[in-house]
Amino acid sequence: MSDHRSLHVPDGLEGERVDAALARLFGLSRGRAADIIASGDVQVDGRQVSKSDRVTAGAWLEVTLPPPPAAPVAIPEPVPGMSIVHEDDDIVVVNKPIGVAAHPTTGWTGPTVIGGLLGTGHTVATSGAAERQGIVHRLDANTTGCMVVAKSEIAYSRLKHAFHDREITKRYHALVQGHPDPFRGTVDAPIDRHPSGSGKFAVIMGGKPSITHYDTIEAFRAATLLDINLETGRTHQIRVHMSALKHPCVGDMMYGADPTIAARLGLTRQWLHAVKLGFVHPTTDEYVEFTSPYPDDLQKALDIVGAES
User: Is 140 a known active-site residue?
Assistant: First the structure.
């Protein structure tokens, strides 16, 4: 059932784009807000608007919100290539392969970590939204490596707090184009959704605080292998920050990588891998750490880069 809302534009949204204002007011994604505007269900002071129009504080906003889409459901089925690194009564740590999302989302029809676990008889915590039960952190669908899922309710609660409070060790390796200068450094730049509504993220003034520490493992002729320590965990954080440095992850065409380099190395995704995940176990209170080797596509690309140097 549709939901009609009428209100004055708050002072804090003065000058915002209409799609951004709707997203902030009603907790929508920018893409969903743009779709509602395009359908003609948004009026400002009695006239229809486009998503790029700007709102004025105090203007009368009328919106007809469509019913929310049904939450996607994880399909229990084994995921080829997904292996179990560790499992006990409270947690399961997986080595996530390429092309697998953490949990189902609107528009994603591929395999998921949750579906893979359920499909092989594992249990997960029932806390959280129905489509992402047990999920305490995520990796992009095409980012591989270590990922932990909560099995018990106490593990879910404690790990969620640990990730929120930055008490987790998250180490990644990334092969980036060129040579970052300096070879060791920190990127402290806020991240939010790209204004285009394309699903990309970007460094945006007023975005969520985001901090990435990087160090050089090895410099090659045309690329550099970095060890990356995430202090925060924003969506696409490493990819956005490396792109902002003008050294995108090799193969990451979404964020400005050179497609000819990716083709030469046989890459169909970004060279980015979650090599290490460490945390205090939620029930034993002991520090545990798990590692993941490079998958075949990343190792092959690294071998080629090394041979060319």
Answer: yes
